[in-house]
Write a structure and sequence with these properties.
Strand 5 and strand 6 form a beta hairpin. Helix 2 packs parallel to helix 10 and helix 3 packs antiparallel against helix 5. Helix content is 54%, strand content 11%. It is α+β, with helices and mostly antiparallel strands. The two termini are 37 Å apart. Among the domains are: 164 residues, Helix Hairpins, CATH 1.10.287; 170 residues, Jelly Rolls (Sandwich), CATH 2.60.120.10. It comes from Raphidocelis subcapitata.
């Protein structure tokens, strides 16, 4: 199944109201072909599994907060609804390109190769051996600095993907791209590195003035500006982690562990190179040379030795120091060299400890992924079995694709994820679970807060925590039924997000309920009156009510109420439910909760 190019979005009344279409993918992304099964619709957002560009293997997608995601989505919705169109070109007149554009991909590969060679190896070597006095190396350094400056321009003209949980949104407005990159990307590092080339050019043009100052050298200043580019090592390490340090894949867990180990060795090699060049630079910038550590390496004076021999000696010195071996055949002679040795020991011990921990984590992750592979294989086996049956029944290819997409698509993933959340929430102690849900309903989600304030109006925060602790998580996948008309009522629900449709018999009607909302599809007033009557007689709520599967016709003599309508999930729903037995206890000790529930039901019925 191909990804959808747009989804329907409901725009607020303040923006004109109505339903519009919001594009989620770049224009060149192929849309679903005729005959393919339609994917699940969701407002503004889209399941990540249906986005077929490099969301998961490149650093051009950002995890954002719910509020930030809604801001980006609202701008797209307003634009699609006829609002002011966002500019698709920057102030430089350049277009914003998608992450899969050949130029963006090629540029990223070229800069990655430049970081792996120049930033990781050549830059520290040039600093250690003062190569900037050579005009050819100086010209090469300026050329690389210009490339790094252009990299900032390219990053501000590359569309991004913002992600919130299992939802993604394609952002291609220059304003939003710059905001997302500044907030979640490496904009600070890229900007500092981009300024190194203009600073070098300015120092080169002012070289006569700088050299005339006592104790100042233009070459040293140019070299110092070039050293700022070492900050790109942070970006390189992040990219290395995303390419190789990620979770091993289900199919090739062992191969990923090998890549993990190789990338770890590369990182240690880069760290060793930089520390070695640091020791060489300290030795070369001190005078006289006889006081430096190069003057006594295993009883030999290497101050006049070749660059290759000095570098090998520095590698030996740093390795022995970082491993805390300390043979004593080479040591720091000056105070600054002794401080460098202390820094090398600290960095070396930290790096070794991190490497051991990383390898252990990788092996444990591979073992967990082996268990995950068995679960995935079971789901795929179910899909193949059902597809074989469907083929035997001569069904269409589109139907078989829908069967496979259910077992491999976002619907099942949403159910598994929601069930995992529900299990984890149920394992929490009651007080802690209540405090967590109190933050959900009263602090962190503005769209849910009105529902929480309506249902728990007049209840103190402490009592509200105890009431919310009685809620259970009840996720519902699209296409599944929440309740059937005529069945004995057992729960009330709080719909945080999603959409339910009312069934007439087994056929869907036009009546829909979207979250957040209270879902109580039975006669709430009669049930509350029954609770007040039982409370007046001193009987426990439904104390000896005999459980039953369905209500008798009319339902008047039933000890429990009956559902008056059937509700079906039109979209993936995330609900909280409370059994009526618990709600009866809540209403008995907090009567205002019952009044609030009755008012909420009446308001929903008045709104239609």
């Amino acid at each position: 199944m191909q990804p959808l190019a747009a989804v329907a979005v409901t725009v607020a009344e303040g923006d004109g109201g109505g339903e519009v279409t919001v594009p989620l993918l770049p224009p060149e992304t192929p849309t679903a072909a005729d005959g393919d099964a339609p994917a699940e619709h969701d407002p503004i957002i889209k399941p990540a599994q249906y986005v077929r560009f490099w969301v998961n293997i490149t650093p051009w997608s950002y995890r954002v907060s719910r509020a930030e995601f809604q801001r980006y989505a609202a701008r797209k919705a307003a634009e699609a609804h006829g609002g002011p169109s966002a500019r698709r070109t920057s102030p430089l007149g350049l277009p914003v390109l998608p992450p899969t554009h050949p130029f963006i991909v090629g540029w990223g590969a070229a800069l990655l190769l430049l970081d792996l060679t120049y930033t990781a190896v050549l830059l520290p070597l040039a600093f250690a051996f003062s190569a900037y006095s050579d005009p050819q190396w100086l010209a090469f350094s300026l050329f690389v600095g210009i490339l790094f400056t252009l990299d900032l321009v390219v990053m501000l003209h590359r569309a991004v993907v913002v992600k919130y949980m299992d939802r993604v949104l394609y952002v291609d407005s220059p304003r939003d791209v710059a905001a997302a990159y500044a907030r979640h990307g490496d904009a600070a590092i890229t900007t500092l590195v981009a300024l190194s080339a203009p600073a070098q050019i300015a120092a080169l043009l002012a070289a006569p003035v700088i050299d005339s100052l006592p104790g100042r050298s233009a070459v040293t200043l140019i070299q110092s500006f070039a050293l700022i580019r070492g900050l790109r090592l942070v970006r390189l390490l992040v990219l290395q982690r995303q390419l190789f340090f990620g979770k091993p894949s289900v199919r090739n867990a062992r191969r990923e562990v090998v890549l993990y180990a190789l990338s770890l060795l590369y990182v240690l090699g880069v760290l060793l190179t930089w520390l070695s060049c640091m020791m060489l630079a300290i030795a070369h910038y001190q005078s006289p040379p006889e006081i430096t550590w190069l003057a006594s390496v295993k009883g030999q004076d290497l101050t006049e030795a070749s660059a290759s021999r000095q570098f090998v000696a520095a590698i030996y010195f740093v390795t022995v120091t970082a491993c805390t071996v300390g043979f004593g055949d080479v040591s720091g002679g000056t105070e600054i060299e002794q401080l460098a040795v202390v820094l090398t020991v600290i960095v070396g011990v930290t790096a070794i400890a991190f490497s051991v921990k990383s390898m252990v984590d990788a092996l444990l992750e591979a073992a967990l992924q082996d268990e995950g592979a068995q679960r995935v294989a079971l789901l795929r086996d179910r899909a193949r079995t059902l597809s074989t049956w469907a083929r035997w029944q001569s069904t269409s290819k589109g139907m078989m694709d829908r069967i496979i997409s259910f077992y491999q698509g976002p619907g099942l993933n949403h159910a598994i994820l929601s069930q995992t959340w529900g299990r984890l929430l149920s394992e929490l102690p009651g007080d802690l679970r209540g405090e967590l849900l109190f933050q959900v309903f009263f602090k962190h989600h503005p769209e849910v807060r009105p529902l929480g304030e309506q249902l728990l109006a007049g209840v103190s925060p402490g009592d509200a925590v105890h009431v919310l602790a009685q809620l259970d998580v009840a996720p519902l996948c699209v296409g599944h039924t929440l309740c059937w008309e005529g069945d004995a009522a057992e729960h009330v629900w709080l719909l945080q997000e999603g959409e339910l449709v009312t069934l007439q018999g087994v056929l869907p009607t036009g009546r829909r309920r979207r979250g957040p909302a209270l879902i109580a599809p039975f006669d709430v007033a009669a049930w509350l009156a029954q609770q007040r009557e039982q409370q007046g007689t001193g009987a426990a709520p439904n104390a000896r009510a005999k459980p039953q599967k369905a209500c008798p016709p009319g339902g008047a003599a039933a000890p429990v109420p009956c559902y008056t309508r059937s509700l079906h999930a039109a979209r993936n729903c995330f609900l909280y439910r409370m059994p009526l037995k618990r709600l009866a206890l809540v209403v008995r000790c907090l009567p205002e909760v019952g009044i609030n529930i009755l008012a909420a039901v009446a308001a929903a019925q008045a709104a239609g």
